[in-house]
Amino acid sequence: MTRTTQKGFTLIELMIVVAIIGILAAVALPAYQTYTQRARFSEVVLATTPIKSAIEVGVQTGRIPLTVIDLAFSTYGIPAAPAATPNLASVTLTGTGAISAVGTAAAGGATYTTTPTLAIPMVWTVSGDCLNLGLC
Questions:
Q1: Exposed, middle or buried, 80 (CB in 10 Å: 0-12/13-18/19+)?
Q2: CA–CA separation, 122 vs 59, rounded Å?
Q3: What are phi and psi of 88, to 5 degrees?
Q4: Domains of the chain
Q5: How many CB atoms are located within 10 Å of the residue 82 CB?
Q6: Under a CB-based contact definition with an 8 Å cutoff, are residues 127 and 113 in contact?
Q7: What angle do CA 89, 95, 97 make, to 5 degrees?
Q8: Prediction pTM value
């Protein structure tokens, strides 16, 4: 007597595997989209770094007075405004040193604003809707 053995999977086993993969994909996809948006927005935050550094150096060396109200790009050793990129829409600088950067829609379209205390040691306060969106 020859006995035949089963080879392969049954239909129900394959359906269970497909269902498990579908559930994992449904959970992972939104998390992945959040991570990619946060990664894109990091370029917006990074665009403010050279400006922040120039203001800090200017205050510490005395080139920028603590009572300044006329800060602008390309003054007091502050670099020019960064050019727009696929993730960065614009960067603005107020006279008192607050830097605002706006992300494009690909980066969440949020605003990142950092404001200095013109004192030594200099402390930067972060605000903007990127905080509520969890991007910065």
A1: exposed
A2: 8
A3: -115, 120
A4: 11-133 (3.30.700)
A5: 19
A6: yes
A7: 70
A8: 0.78
